[in-house]
Amino acid sequence: MQRKLWQLSPCDKDLAAQLSEDCGMDPILALLLASRGIQDEEQAALFLSDETELSDPFLLADMEKAVERVGQAIENFEKIAVFGDYDADGVTSTALLYLYLSKQGADVQCYIPDRITEGYGMSKAAIQKLKDDGVKLIVTVDTGVAAVEETEFAKSLGMDIVITDHHQPGETLPDAVAVVDPHRADCPSEFKEYAGGGVAFLLACALDGDFESVLDEFSDLVALGTLADVVSLTGENRTLVKAGVQRLNHNPRPGFAALKAASGTQNRALTASGVAFTLAPRINAAGRVGSAMTALKLLLCETEEEARPFAEEIEQENHRRQAIEAEISNAAIAQIEADPAIRYASVLVVSGEGWHPGVIGIVAARLVSRYGKPAVVITTDGDTGKGSCRSIDGFSIFDALCAVKEHLTHFGGHPGAAGLGVKTQNIGALREALDAYAAKVGMPFPTLTLDFKLNPSYINLALLDTLAVLEPCGCGNPVPTFGLYNMTLRAVKPVGEGKHLRLTLQKGITELTAMLFSVTLAQFPFKLGDAVDLAVQVDRNVFRGEVKPSVHIRAIRFSGLDEENFLKSVRLYEKYRHGDTLNEKEAAFLCPSRTFLLSVYKFIRANSPWHFDIDVFCKRSGCPAANAATVLVALDVLCELHLILKDGEGGFSFNEESIGQKADLADSEILKALQERGGALS
To answer: Is the CATH number 3.10.310.30 carried by domain 339-438?
Structure first.
């Protein structure tokens, strides 16, 4: 289990108390708002409002030009192509604008490039194809702001382009009829955080002149795209998503109704997070391992019966995506674990021939979650490679790529995620360059942010009502996470065919049950009576008409764990295993004494086989967590001397064949090397 540094969200308790008094709100809600940066009654009212006023779409630069040209095309019955992206935001944006324009009587068609054969964004080949189809005007959604050459090509063919996008523009804007992007330097719109669907929605509003009717009809599409693209759920996005989630629950369009049925969520009230983790990945799956056009066709269906085959196909594609993802993840993990140069680098870089490009981003995210480090996953095809990157908070992977761009053919992205191209022969050099950059700027620890510590007695129906007020939750307004400290473990019960655990915990007279998902009993390191800290999220569970709080465990640790020093110690060990230079103090700290080695040996012998993480070893053996690095070196030495054995899963067992045999510590190359660096064996 990857260990993160738990951090309490900065929160001014005096400010929270004032908010509670001024607004007459629950103190817990006031604390949650304060932790989200709410400073006064006006900001609180705006944040909690059910209907935040949407901006005038004409505040977006070039919107007037866009409306004029699209309106002209509608009036003259010119053939229009809505050109979108293959991800969920792109697909829903395409569906939105296509449906709106069709309703206005436009001669309109859609184009979404294939992820594998065409790649991202507009291409000259796609533009030529649309020209051959008689298209006069291309309107992009969720793409296009970087298409400078492609726009020039379209103009040379006598075609016009209106661009709507939400990505960061480059130094040069395309010479289109209009470039509508809130991130343009000259865009006067105050709100900048729209997803691609948000910008497409504003174009429809500008064309229509009636916010309310457009929102009523298309809020579900905007909401799903916004949630899928992980943009900030603040400001106007809260209004868009809140309206969309409500429609998805109460009046879904036929395509979404069929998809909910296929995914088994038709009888569940979905929160914003529920939409993000159930419906959005399925729309994305079509574009990842199948065709995004399948998802688009689903959303354009007029009846649920018509939509059902598309929904079932997408559900199958999602299962296929999961299988492909698992296969590549396992291969990537095996590669990492087999090579210390990869495993102990500050930035993980793995590659494989023919890995499916549609899932490498998800695999990178899984590696980040498992190892607590930025990850770059590259699929190669002969001499060329295509990579997807994910990072941790506090380390900009985009800045890192900028610093090592000489090793890349191209790249783009933002601090948390990016894409790149690289020649296969340069992957090793890229790994070394990224590691050198990380060493220069420093690598933060992965963190888990808690809103605040909570007494478990406050987990009740009133808390559920308080949390509901914060919806929609997501990026910029995370689902509240609470710290339950010094809880005593009373019972553990496997559920879900043994795949998950239900824990019973107690503090004082308060007892609660909590779910720990995707952890089996064999993987669970805690014993009855252990004092533990929990990071939890609380949801509403309805069973047979009865509403109860449902507690989900995001992380669990031993109470009193010196986590920061533990993480520092583990990082020192990784520095050593990576072959980086150690000073004498570091070498001395890492070098275990004879007594220390003996104690580790005795513990493994008494607890063989041992398959839990090093923090658990420290706790059970009585070793300070800050000495985790020394424990890890001791385990390496004992393996080297064949006194214990290491299995393929990272566990250890006592070597029965070593009984009666003497091991000489002087034979350890590990100890010799550390002693040469300044360590002393005593």
So the answer is: yes
521-556: pLDDT as tens digits: 999 999 999 999 999 999 988 777 788 899 999 999
Identify the DSSP state of 416: S
Let me know if domain 57-251 sits in CATH 3.90.1640.30: yes
Distances (CA, A) of 323 to 116, 194, 259, 319, 664: 18, 32, 20, 6, 48
- Type of residue found at 308: R
**For residue range 109-133, what is the model confidence (pLDDT) as tens digits?**
999 999 888 888 899 999 999 999 9
Whether 336 and 371 have beta carbons less than 8 Å apart is answered as: yes
Average pLDDT over residues 177-185: 95
Distance CA 546, CA 564 (A): 42
* Class at the top of the CATH hierarchy for domain 5-10+449-558: mainly beta
Residues 6+ apart with CB under 8 A from 358: 115, 116, 287, 288, 289, 321, 324
Tokens, residue 469 = 């007020």
Where in the chain are the domains? 5-10+449-558, 57-251, 339-438, 563-676
Query: What is the model's pTM?
Result: 0.88
Q: Given pLDDT bands bounded at 50, 70 and 90, which one contains residue 152? A: very high
DSSP 524: -
Tokens 């507009």 appear where?
A: 122
CB 636 within 8 A of CB 596: no
Mean predicted lDDT score pLDDT of the chain? 92
Name the burial class of residue 302, with classes exposed (0-12), middle (13-18) and buried (19+) by CB atoms within 10 angstroms of its CB.
exposed
